[in-house]
Amino acid sequence: MRTGYPFTMSWLPLLVYLSLDAANAFTGAMHGPYIELKPEVSLVTPELRPRVGATGVAGWWFGEYDEVYAFGRFTGVGLSFSPHILPGKPMTLAELEVRRGWDLFVVQLVGGLRAGMEVPTVHTESAHWSARAAGQVKWRIQPKLGLILGLSGGVIGTNDGPAPTPVLDFELGIGWSQPARPAAP
């Protein structure tokens, strides 16, 4: 007779858990605000020039979610501001972001897209634009607060300049989010 983990029924609860859709589990329609602050280091090609900066994001999420267990899938829409110190030129980008995420108790996985324009200043010679894809992992240290490790990549270009420049951002920061109230059916 065979024994051991693969030959017992102990894998059945795990299989059932993994096959449940978030809408069928413990979740209900919810929504709420999120805020993130992420200092970052970026590499700008073609010379791989480093730049330092930060990204601040404020937005609203909605989806099937369970507040007690921090479990569920969500979509978020937000506005991010990213001041950076480029070699020789400061720049601030204002970007619209759309994200899709999944909370699994203490870990949150997020993927999203951002696009925007440079905020005009007296130092602005030509308007910059950006388009980036981003991913991040948030580890909850408290029910509403977590540490974020993120990576985003894309391009930054100018309206009247050469071809867009690839950029890669490494982010480490904190994030807060909270359900506002259950969404009306």
Report the biggest beta sheet as strand number plus sense, adding barrel if it closes.
8 strands, antiparallel, barrel
- Alpha plus pi helix count: 1
How are strands sequenced across the largest beta sheet?
A: 1-2-3-4-5-6-7-8
In total, the number of strands is: 9
Output the helix-strand order: HEEEEEEEEE
From the N-terminal CA to the C-terminal CA, the straight-line distance is 53 Å
Helix content: under 10%
Uncertain stretches: none
The percent range for strand residues is over 45%
Instruction: Tell me the name of the CATH class.
Output: Mainly Beta
Determine the structural class based on helices, strands and strand pairing. mainly beta
Radius of gyration: 20 Å
State mean pLDDT (0 to 100 scale).
Answer: 82
> What overall geometry do the principal axes of the alpha carbons give?
elongated
* Integer count of domains: 1
If classified by CATH, what would the architecture be?
Answer: Beta Barrel
The CATH topology name reads Porin
Folded structure, characterized:
With 185 residues, the chain is mainly beta. It contains one helix and nine strands, in the order αβββββββββ. It has one helix spanning 12-19; strands spanning 28-44, 49-66, 71-86, 89-104, 107-118, 128-140, 145-158, 165-177, 181-182. An eight-stranded antiparallel beta barrel has the order 1-2-3-4-5-6-7-8. A hairpin with a 2-residue loop joins β4 (89-104) and β5 (107-118). The N and C termini lie far apart (53 Å). 24% of the residues are buried. The model has no long low-confidence stretch (mean pLDDT 82).
